[in-house]
Design brief:
Helix content is about 35%, strand content about 15%. The chain is an alpha+beta fold. Bound molecules: zinc ion.
Length: about 150
């Protein structure tokens, strides 16, 4: 079985499944091969066939045209959207918490035992410190920060 990336003269990109390359050529020559989207009989194989579902929008050859395609790529947009949401949440967290840096474990302990005023804090703690805090019943959350936040945490 051979999977080929095909494109009609309207710019629609779609997949064609063939028994072999010869099968593709035969179907194409006998006019059996048509675009499933618009029915155009003029279907060509894309020069390269990368197995990446990037959607037709980023096809290097002859853009999809004004009609666009059905594959606008919501999958492709999902990841950046998620990252943006995550960054937004992180920034809010940064705004609403006080950075106590390396004193995090000490400060968390003092808040827990009522030695200082209660407030949301953030900072750096080693895994051992975090573990010790949890053992004492002090709620802490470890967040893996994206690389861009390193500077803000210092
Ligand atoms: Zn078409």
């Amino acid at each position: 079985m051979k999977v080929l990336d095909l494109q009609c003269d309207q710019g629609h990109v779609f997949e064609g499944w063939f028994a072999s390359e010869d099968d593709y050529q035969a179907q194409r020559q006998s006019g059996l091969l048509t675009c499933p989207l618009c029915g155009a009989p003029d279907v060509d194989k894309l020069p390269s066939a990368p197995r990446l579902n990037l959607g037709s929008g980023s096809a290097p050859a002859g853009q999809g045209g004004p009609s666009g395609g059905p594959s606008g790529g919501p999958e492709g947009a999902a990841l950046p959207a998620m990252q943006a949401a995550l960054l937004k949440a992180m920034r809010r967290l940064m705004r609403e918490t006080e950075d106590v840096g390396a004193r995090f474990a000490e400060e968390a302990r003092r808040i827990h035992y009522g030695e200082t005023r209660e407030r949301p804090i953030r900072g750096r703690a080693s895994p051992e410190e975090t573990h010790a805090l949890l053992e004492e019943g002090i709620p802490v959350i470890s967040l893996p920060l994206p690389p861009g936040f390193d500077g803000e945490l210092q």
